[in-house]
């Protein structure tokens, strides 16, 4: 309760700087106190520490205005005219304050932006005048007729405000990219990249703006200059963020980004941090969740070099974080192209990954084990994989993964544990076509554990995907070793159609007696 109170107070203190200015402006009817520059500076809320700070304040102000516009629409729907008017005045003041603040720290504002600023202020004033007339009248018919006009004006204000914010963010992205492209000073470039990274953390829309303005090409230009080697990790981290959107991926392809990443990964003179961040970019652009990776034709040309470097990074990783990034990239690549599995087999990647799993300092979270078991599952389609699993004691590892449980209870970690259980069962099912693997699994008591996962919803965290994978693995092992099952398990979990066994298990209720 104490933490909640502290967090609430801290949030209120942050918002207070914005809200008090608005209230002061309301009282003064948006009139400036003074035209003197020094005195005017005292009214500006934003600190002049950095562009990043100013942009964060701008984005926060924009978020407040957007929220207030939404509230106006809600109050208007309920015909709460007095509240609509007070909120409109607040929005009017917030918009003026935001524009004044922005003009204090921006450079080289375009004429188009000044015109948009004037247009937004005029529309807000018009909107305020509209709502004021509504407050002054009590005629229901008049109010009803004015309501549609106010709705239209509200929509217009929201549209113009959105366009203004788009212009502002584009302008700031252009300024930062201009600094990155023109400066040969490490400190100035570092500051600009840091501000750019902060912008990418504000969402996909800002990433699209940065990509559209040539951010990907500018950052790869940094990664090709030895004088900026110390900035490579930060630059690559920013690239990974931008490449979460389709526009970033297209720009990466145009800038020969894959070749640059391959060069960085294969260059042993780079630091581990640089290699890890390059692996993070690879993991991002090959994510199976993205629908726009098909155009990465140059990736196939450099895949063998990249996979080799990533396997080496996994083998030499000094921390769990580095291993996670490298293994995540490898896991995604095995989805991206099946040839990657054959390359991994040739590189003895199975042995390296299984050895890493025995080191709790390297494979230290369910997220890392999720990446490892993903690679094993995708490699298990190859016939040669079975012998590698046996030699590396991989069946024992898969058995342990069937017991994966979250220690924190956080939803992300719980989901990762479910994926580990599901993929380990899938891998067992695929590998059990080999009698030697099936025999090892039976000796390690995999069948009782699979039965437990099928029959006990809490063991699998009520996951249907884990249930299906366990049923399939159980049936494959039962076919190879029918004596390992009790008759009731065989009759309910193996003999019926898969869908019938699934329905039976999902309808089971655990006894609490």
Automatic annotation (TrEMBL):
GO molecular function: cytoskeletal anchor activity
InterPro entries, alphabetized: ARM-like, ARM-type_fold, Armadillo, Insc_C, INSC_LBD, INSC_LBD_sf, Inscuteable
Superkingdom as given in the UniProt entry: Eukaryota
Biological process according to GO: apical protein localization; asymmetric cell division; establishment of mitotic spindle orientation; regulation of asymmetric cell division
Domain Protein inscuteable homologue LGN-binding residue range list: 4-49
Pfam families: Insc_C (PF19427), INSC_LBD (PF16748)
Gene3D superfamilies registered for this protein in UniProt: Inscuteable LGN-binding domain (6.20.200.10), Leucine-rich Repeat Variant (1.25.10.10)
Stretches assigned to the Protein inscuteable homologue C-terminal domain: 61-513
Name of the protein this chain belongs to: Protein inscuteable
Native source organism of the sequence: Antrostomus carolinensis
